[in-house]
Structures are given as C-alpha cells and as structure tokens.
Specification:
- It contains 5 helices and 4 strands; from the N terminus they run H-E-E-H-H-H-E-E-H.
- It is of the alpha+beta class.
- Strands 1-2-4-3 form a 4-stranded antiparallel beta sheet.
- A hairpin with a 4-residue loop joins strand 1 and strand 2.
Length: 168
C-alpha cells in the first residue's frame, strides 16, 4: 500500500513539474528567417542602399545597430542578391581581416567613431516589439545608404586594403 502511494505521488510530482515550464513569447519579427541585410539599389557614385532589420532597446539604438550592421556587411561579408546594380563583393577581401586589424576596426566602429560619416538613414519603419529573456526590444526595418567608395578610399589610405588600378 505504501509503495503504491509513493509511486502515485512521484508520478503526480513529475507531471506537476513538467507542466510548469514557461512558453516563449513569439512575435512576427521572431519568425523572420532571411538575411539581416538586403540590397535595394546602388548608384554610379558608389552609394549602396541596403535594408537592415535591426533591434534595440529603443529607436535610436536600433538605428545605430542598423548602420553598423550595414557597414560591416558591405565591408566584410558582401551582399548576396540577384540585383545586378548591387555590388556583392565585400570591400575587405582578406580572410580574417577583422581579427587581424582588430585595433583599427574597434576604433572605427566605436560609439561616435569614423563609421558614422559613411552612412545615412533614408527610411525607418517600425516592425514590432520582440521579447528576449524578459526584456522588450523594438524591431525596425531601416534603409541605410552606405558610401562604399569613400569607405574604400579610407581603408586604402589607412593601408587596410589595396586598390588595384583595374578595380577603380
């Protein structure tokens, strides 16, 4: 009799503990699975307009994150796209350049650093609120113009990249 009561109480305890698990809060932005950065257009002056999906505690933090992500994508990863006018190749083609020139890029990307003068915001659209670990973030779709030619000139001047005469 005591064995049976003990078994039943363990089974009830097991079900009680497994049913208390909290469910994650999902919003529409959390279902977005594509790339963070998409190319919209490019012009003959070396500007590329990219759409960045960014999150931040508030609007200004999300915009700053979008600008930084746009520059890092253009500099290190390139943009995979089917649009012919967009440049898909990264500016810095050297493998592990971000780690090799870590001091330079930490200074370049610090708050209020040199990276701010190579971007401008064209359009901002609020997407949704996203909850992560109990903290609410705002998600935005930001169109950022990145001055690719000026970044190339700056990195060549600082001897991070080499511009060949046939690439100009």
């Amino acid at each position: 009799m005591m064995n049976r009561i003990l078994r039943i109480s363990f089974i009830l305890l097991f079900f009680a503990l497994t049913s208390c698990k909290s469910k994650p809060t999902n919003t529409m932005a959390s279902f977005y699975t594509g790339s963070n950065v998409e190319c919209i257009s490019a012009d003959m002056y070396g500007n590329e307009v990219v759409q960045v999906f960014a999150q931040g505690r508030n609007r200004s933090a999300a915009i700053a994150e979008a600008k930084e992500e746009a520059i890092k994508t253009v500099m290190f990863r390139g943009i995979v796209t089917d649009k012919k006018q967009c440049s898909v190749k990264p500016i810095v083609k050297e493998t592990n350049a971000e780690e090799r020139y870590k001091k330079y890029f930490d200074k370049f990307f610090k708050k209020g650093g040199k990276n701010r003068k190579y971007t401008s915001v064209r359009r901002i659209a609020f997407q949704s609120h996203v909850v992560k670990n109990g903290i609410t973030y705002e998600s935005y779709s930001v169109e950022v113009t990145v001055n690719r030619k000026e970044i190339e000139k700056r990195l060549a001047k600082d001897e991070i990249i080499k511009i060949n005469s046939y690439e100009k």
